[in-house]
Write a structure and sequence with these properties.
- By secondary structure, this protein is an alpha/beta fold.
- It has one domain: Rossmann fold, CATH 3.40.50.300.
- It has 9 helices and 8 strands.
- The strands form 2 sheets. A 5-stranded parallel sheet has the order 2-6-1-7-8, sandwiched between helices.
- A hairpin with a 2-residue loop joins strand 4 and strand 5.
Length: about 240
């Protein structure tokens, strides 16, 4: 992938069901940029922990599994891949067992430190090779890339997010009810926003974008406008707006 239109890092944070992943991938693809799904990395480590049979309440054991796991996260927005110990686990990490366990695993400080370091390495590589990258997660603007030129915090009311999640699960063949999905959304919101290390919150200089009444096209259009407003689009001459 050559240099695209995006120059720099776009950090997208927010809880699940805000349209963050779909919008991030489309934004990156439309601007010829790389894309990093940091949530997939935490899910892959969680899968490794579950496979190892380690108690989720054992932070030392969880951290050891994370250290030993060989995780490779792809950055192609048209085909985002996640490999764990040489195996493509992109589908398995979206299952209910991983979804239930990912919050406690991602709350372990050693796990976060390891993955943040790897995420920063991937981002630096993408900037050198492609010029720009869209990074999505829960602590991108606050911890991973606090100096990102554009930080956006996507939000939406819990009911709307649960409906979107349930629709995604159904489309992927995963069985769930709206009530169960809403309970899971609220559980993860509480867990992720109250953890001791890098809690889910908007960075002080982030643009807050409420997607409750926006579809994917509307969310993407709003993000495109923000990218342009922040001077992150390369001109034909190679110069950057601003």
């Amino acid at each position: 992938m050559g240099h695209g239109e995006l120059r720099g890092v776009v950090a997208l944070d927010g809880p699940s069901g805000t349209g963050k992943s779909s919008a991030a991938r489309r934004l990156a693809a439309g601007l010829g940029a790389r894309y990093l799904d940091t949530g997939a990395m935490y899910r892959a480590v969680t899968l490794a922990v579950l496979r190892a049979g380690v108690d989720l309440a054992d932070p030392a054991g969880v951290a050891k599994v994370a250290r030993d796991a060989v995780l490779v996260q792809g950055t192609d927005p048209n085909r985002s891949t996640t490999f764990l110990d040489g195996e493509d686990v992109g589908t398995e990490i979206r299952g209910p067992e991983v979804t239930l366990a990912v919050s406690p695993v991602s709350a372990v400080p050693e796990v976060r430190a390891q993955l943040v370091a790897e995420q920063r390495r991937i981002i630096a590589e993408a900037l050198a090779e492609a010029g720009g990258i869209v990074v999505e997660g829960r602590d991108i603007g606050t911890a991973v890339v606090p100096d990102a030129p554009l930080k956006v915090y996507l939000t939406a009311d819990a009911e709307a997010r649960a409906q979107r999640r349930a629709k995604q699960d159904s489309a992927s063949g995963r069985q769930s009810t709206l009530d169960a999905t809403l309970a899971d959304v609220q559980r993860r919101d509480t867990y992720d926003s109250t953890r001791a290390v890098s809690p889910l919150r908007a960075a002080g200089d982030a643009v807050v974008l409420d997607t409750t009444s926006l579809d994917l096209a509307g969310t993407l259009a709003a993000l495109m406008d923000l990218v342009g407003d922040h001077g992150l689009l390369a001109q034909p001459s190679g110069r950057v707006h601003g």
